[in-house]
Structures are given as structure tokens and as C-alpha cells.
Amino acid sequence: MASTQTYIETPLVVDDDAGVTASMALSSLGESLRSAYPYMRTEALNNIVDHMKSELVSKITEQQPRMAASRARICFTDLPAEIRNNIYELVVIPQAGHTLLEIRTPRDATLSPRTYAKIPTLLATSRQVRNDASPIYYGNNGFIATFPYSATQS
């Protein structure tokens, strides 16, 4: 004769999301076990489910620092544009009167393109960063080129 006892869930007291998750994951476990093992005592069945909940909560809790660290990581390009622009301004706009690049050469020497094409390395990190930061760099910095002129060079 099959047992007509129903599973009585004994609550597992947990104050965090792990307990709620474990309860949801194991909500129908008691009924499934009762169907599979109709002659198992209710107390034994409750103990099995409670043990499984405890294990599940323990394993979830054990993983929470790793999950929090993963959640805390954010890609720079995921930041809002306003924050990225503030960072770009701090990086690519020098303080007033600061010389970004000064090139001194002998009088007869010519400058090669590689000598004076130095740009902030930030602009070389990715296309998105270059596209975002270039207008700030070129739009907010003054570029002055001076060439010494000698009266004897006519």
C-alpha cells in the first residue's frame, strides 16, 4: 500500500539570495522524491532535502566573492560617454603652458614625419578610444610650429 503522507517542507533560514535560490531550485524536490520513494519516512525525506539545501547554499555562498568580483569588472568602453570624455580631457589636455613636444634640430637638418608625429598613446589603444578622444585632443590643444629663420639663408 502506497503511503499517503505528503512532504512537509522544513524551511532553511538564510538571510541572503542564496537561500532563496536554493529554495526555488529545490521546491519540487520533495514531491519528486515522494513519488519515487513512496515508502520513505517523511522525516528522512525532509532531512535529505534540508541537507541538499544546506549544501547548495554553502556552494553558492562559497562562489559569491568570485561572482562579485566578476560583476564589479567593467570595461572602459562600457562607461557612459560623459565619464569617458572627462577621463580623456584629464589625459590628453595638458596644463596651461605645458610643452607637449619640442624638437630641436641642427639648422640644416630636415624633420622626418616620424619625429614630430608623436600623439598620446591613449589614442593608439583602440579605434573607439581614438575616435572618441581625437576630437578632444586636437580640439583643445594648441599646436604651434616655429622654424628658426636666419637672415643669412636667403
TrEMBL record:
Taxonomic source organism: Passalora fulva (Tomato leaf mold)
Domain of life: Eukaryota
UniProt protein name: 2EXR domain-containing protein
Ranges of residues in domain 2EXR: 75-134
A Pfam cross-reference name: 2EXR
Coiled coil, from the record: none
Stored InterPro entries: 2EXR, AN11006-like
